[in-house]
Amino acid sequence: MASRHGDRVPVSSAEPPGRFEWLRRHRRWLFMVAVVALLVEMAVAMVTTAVQQTPTIDEPVYAGTAVVYAQQHSLRYNPEHPPLGKLIIASGLVFAHPHLDADFTGDQTELGRRLLYESGNDPWRVMLWARLPVIVLTLLFGLVVLAFARELVGDVGGLVALALYAFSPDVIAHGSLATLDVPASGFLLTSVWLLWRARRRPLLHLPLAGAALGAALATKMSMLPAVPVLLLLAVVSVCHGRDLSVFRKARLGAAAAAGMALVALAVVWATYLAVDPRLRWTAPENLPAVHGLRGLLIDWLPFPQPYRDGMRVQFGFENATWEGFLLGRLYRGSLWYYLPVALLVKTPLGMAALWLAGAVAMAAVPRLRSAAPYVLIPPAVLLAAAMHGSRDLGVRYALFVPVFLGVAAAGAVSFRRRWAHLATAALVLFVAASSLHTYPYYLPYSNEAFGGPSKTHLRLHDSNVDWGQDLGRLADRLDSRYPHDDVWLVYKGAGVPSSYGIDAADPRKVPPGEVHGLLVVSDSSIAKADGRLAALLATSTPIDEVGHSITIYRRR
Fold first, then answer.
1. What span, in angstroms and rounded, lies between the C-alpha atoms of 207 and 195?
2. Which residues pair with 555 in a beta bridge?
3. The pTM is what?
4. Which 3-state string (H, E, C) describes 237-255?
5. Hey, how many other C-beta atoms are within 10 angstroms of the C-beta on 165?
6. I need a surface site. Which of 9, 41, 381, 530 has the fewest CB within 10 A?
7. Strand 487-490 vs strand 517-522: parallel, antiparallel, or unpaired?
8. Above pLDDT 90, what percent of the chain?
9. Buried-state track 384-418, b at ≥16 Cβ within 10 A, e below 16
10. Quick one: CA torsion of 472, 436, 396, 495, rounded to 10 degrees?
11. 319-342: per-residue pLDDT in tens?
12. Could you tell me the pLDDT band of residue 366, with boundaries at 50, 70 and 90?
């Protein structure tokens, strides 16, 4: 730019800096601040939830087994799940110094009760230390989500993926528990991310991908259906960009898949040997007999005997008939569409929209198409396998969906339209608002289209809403509002009411005419009520609720 006398005026003094210059200059720091803020939000949500909730149904079993692993080096409990998840839980429990009788001989349910309520331990302290390692691991998997999405679509896409992960009510709910669903899903995502990176550096990343896959398999057996998919992805990755003949590609791919499988297998064996180096094992009594293709599969797999017997236990569960509850309907057996519908109920609306947009982007945007098999096929295969299961007990059986599709949703920022970017930002904010609104009751979350957390019990049951987590909150409510009322309790959970100061009797064990005062019922028990309990509920008046999972009735 020149003055009227012909002298050039410096641009910096004649024009104000661009409005985005400051943002560009500090982009790296702003990115780091956003990442830290999202992880801190998630950590606060999970720690608060962990502190306030009493044990859910599965947690005492895992905690008791973890203590047996650490103190007695025995594999005799909970064979239906491999050891790694419980070893992770044990890494926290060592700081709680729990006492457990070495000569205890009960079953695994009795083991959890003995540890928490019959050995002089503080159940609040024990459960918090059991949950903390899973919380830390959940946060670390958030960094994997961020890194994966960032490699696909850049910083903004990484933040979108991390935000969906950090605000996911299901991930927060189960990431704050001493259970196995988040660790298994996170390890699997880590393996897929490393396979994606192996396209450029296969010698470094393929062994690491195998180790992460082994960790997933050593946490939950439900990850097994993903193994063929990941081995095929290993072949794709190692052959990417190589100008080789078909025969040489086939040989290279087979070697890569075999190497990855061997590393995964070694990790599974290592977790069992970490518990008991001598691998002492006695099959449990009444071990289900598995025949046909399933039996051949179990016999053929080169896993430790406890792992293969655990598979037999799982197949025994699958052969049983369970009760389900979906959209107000109680049924026996399973529905193939249960998990998709349950996910629709429990996924924030903005998150579901971004999942769909991201999946479309994976197919429509040329530079993302190569990533689609990595991001979309593993969860699709696992979801198909889970949909054919016999236990309609919660979206935790499909927790890999929000973990993987959070990465896919990052693809929404690849559409080069201003309106698309604004819509993505608005949907992320909608997800955040919906998640924050349910705080700290993440387990019974349902989205606004289905009435929110207070209405979830009308449509779903079990770990979707009422997993025994609110016994402590119930004790506080009874003490603060109803200190002089007689209490009759039907509780679905693993906790012991008297250990939390609740003095209550079971109304199903006395004549209905003797039940006066407060009738307190877990919402899952309401969903499945029949006979005497149904009659009691029909003649009672609901007056209060606790944690969106327990309803308090008044009986005159």
1. 9
2. 517
3. 0.93
4. HHHCCCCCCHHHHHHHHHH
5. 32
6. 530
7. parallel
8. 88
9. ebbbebebbbbbbbbbbbbbbbbbbbbbbbbbeee
10. 0
11. 999 999 999 999 999 999 999 999
12. very high
| Calpha distance 169→199 (Å, rounded) | 33
CA angle 62, 59, 227 (to 5 degrees): 60
Instruction: Sort 86 into a burial class: Cβ within 10 Å, 0-12 / 13-18 / 19+.
Output: buried
How many helices and strands, by DSSP H and E, does the chain display? Answer: 24, 6
Q: Read out DSSP for 64-89?
A: HHHHHHHHH----S-TTS-SHHHHHH
User: What is the rounded CA–CA span in Å between residue 532 and residue 422?
Assistant: 55
β-bridge mates for residue 522, sequence order: 550
CA dihedral sign, ordered 412, 414, 417, 421: positive
Could you tell me the end-to-end alpha-carbon distance of the chain, in angstroms, rounded to an integer? 88
State the Cα–Cα distance between residues 46 and 172, nearest whole angstrom: 6
User: What percent of the chain stands above pLDDT 70?
Assistant: 96
Question: What residues contact 334, with CB distance under 8 A and at least 6 apart?
Answer: 322, 324, 389, 390, 391, 392
Other C-beta atoms lying within 10 Å of the C-beta of residue 454:
13
pLDDT at 14: 44
For residues 378 and 226, the answer to whether their CB atoms sit within 8 Å is: yes
Joined together, the tokens standing for residue 190 give 């880590």
Q: Is the peptide bond before 228 cis (omega within 30 degrees of 0)?
A: no
Structure-token match 């029949």, residue found? 530
Tell me what pLDDT residue 20 has. 59
Contact 160, 199 (CB under 8 A): no
